[in-house]
What we know:
Elements: H1 2-8, H2 12-18, H3 22-46, H4 53-67, H5 75-88, H6 90-116, H7 126-146, H8 152-161
Helix pairs in contact: 3-5, 3-6, 4-7, 4-8, 5-6, 5-7, 6-7
Amino acid sequence: MDDVVAASGMSTSAVYRYFASKDELIDATANEALMLVRDLFSRLLATDPLPTPRQTIEALTRELHQRSEHPRYDLSQIVIQAWGEALRRPELKERTRTFYREALAHLTELAQRWTVGGQLPADADPEAVAAVLLTLMPGLIVTHQLVDSASADTLIRGLAALGATPPDAEGDPTSGS
Length: 177
């Protein structure tokens, strides 16, 4: 909390007026980060025409870069800290788990719609596609913070090498959107 007080430039009493404890501060920042990701999925699902798998990966990487471009308020760092706190605090763990289950449901819906729209093979397993994309999200954040950011194009080329290229709107796995 001392670091927050110093970084904010506010008095200790002013900070404690908003957050009674470190846990309240962590909860508020974790909720904000989760809300932003939830909003991204809502926008993707509401977009017409529906973004392709490739465009979805591009949107995930673009969102990460936008949320981490301000070094003094990098939400990707906050997310990593919130994951650690979720392991320590059962109520935060359950809230985080609920969020990721909702994200998985949104991604499953996207994959189902891609299958119906012909952007994925008819026999594609939407839940498996959603699981890959959900698993990709924390990896993007960790890689961004600890290695080097991976671009959407790099991820798509890697998926292509594994035989899992997300097609673009025309179904050409090698063209960039």
